[in-house]
Amino acid sequence: MLPYKTIPVFLEKIWGGTRLLNYYKNIEGKIGESIEFDGREHGIPLIIKLIDACDDLSIQVHPDEQTAVMFKDGTCGKDEFWVVLDCYEDSYIYWGFNGIYDKSRIYEATLDGSIVNMLNKVNVSVGDCIYIPSGTVHALGKGVMVYELQQSSDVTYRLYDWDRLDKGKKRELHIEKAIESIKPHNFISLSDITNIYEMESKGHNLITIGNYEYFKAKYVCLKNGESIIQACDEVRIITAIYGHGFLDFKDNRMLLKKGDTVVLPEASDECVSIIGDGMLRYIEATV
Fold first, then answer.
1. By the 8 A CB rule, do 64 and 77 touch?
2. What CATH number labels 201-286?
3. Is 99 helix (H, G, I), strand (E, B) or coil?
4. Taking the domain 4-195, which CATH number applies?
């Protein structure tokens, strides 16, 4: 089987925007998510998205496997990993609690919105890499656009949605399920955030940026004419986030440009060659 480009699925969101046009996506309306890869149809437990948050997302949490099964909301949890692709100078995320709170206090705070004052509000920069394990309360802030790698689950429990209206109605909250899913002792440290461009500036062009239980991620930067030979020893999903280059497999050459996601199927004893043309930056995801 040859490497192939995926066909993205676009989802309009109340908080979406138009920046996916910068990634050569043919979109109309306020698109919040471009689902680049959904591995469930191939038996690969990964989903990859480009997310454009032009407004604050809801304060939310994802369950782990045990909690999802208990609520009959699937059979796996939902850990996530973000790489910031674009943001405003003062952009931020909400990421874990800023203190130790019991669940009764958290529940009360969801009712009046004061839960936002209990969360770490963290300024972010382009290139920041952020891991969000299941059970961590979080939200993308206004202006943040990310590459997202996640487990293959669609389950999100909203705690607070800014009292905004969607088509004249408030969106559904899932407070009881969310409270049960929260792991208030998940430790969050700013030192856990790494930045791909800071590492690149120090001469690192092939970087492991995520090595977690359910998925792994690498960042690669290839300058003009530089190449990397990649073994096809497992399924790899490559998403170009800057520039363009080429992917050679046997006698086939594929153009790889910003916004493309390419699946490299497992093929024992085979390899691909990826070549920078000008400059190519991409993220590689594996299980």
1. yes
2. 2.60.120.10
3. coil
4. 2.60.120.10
* Segments making up each domain of the chain, as ranges: 4-195, 201-286
Which residue matches tokens 């290139």? 127
In this predicted model, what pLDDT tens digit does every residue of 162-207 receive, in sequence order? 999 998 999 999 999 999 999 988 877 888 999 999 999 999 999 9
Structure tokens at 180: 């049960």
105 catalytic? Reply is no
Q: What is the pLDDT at residue 41? A: 86
> Which residues, in sequence order, are bridge partners of residue 105?
none
100-152 pLDDT, tens per residue? 999 999 999 999 999 999 999 999 999 999 999 999 999 999 999 999 999 99
Residues 6+ apart with CB under 8 A from 166: 14
What is the token pair recorded at 62?
């994802």
**What's the one-letter identity of residue 185?**
H
**Residue position matching structure tokens 């009712």:** 111
- In this structure, what are the phi and psi dihedrals at residue 60, rounded to the nearest 5 degrees? -145, 170
Instruction: Assess whether the region 4-195 and the region 201-286 belong to the same CATH fold.
Output: yes
Q: Write down the mean pLDDT value for the chain.
A: 96
The rounded distance, in Å, linking the Cα atoms of 255 and 277 is: 10
SS3 sequence, 150-210?
Answer: EECCCCCEEEECCCCEECCEECCCCHHHHHHHCCCCCCCCHHHCEEHHHHHHCCCCEEEEE
* pTM score: 0.97
Catalytic residue among 19, 40, 158, 236: 158
Whole-angstrom Cα Rg for the chain = 19
Locate 140 and state its tokens.
């993308």
CA-based nearest residue to 144, from 81, 80, 52, 59: 52
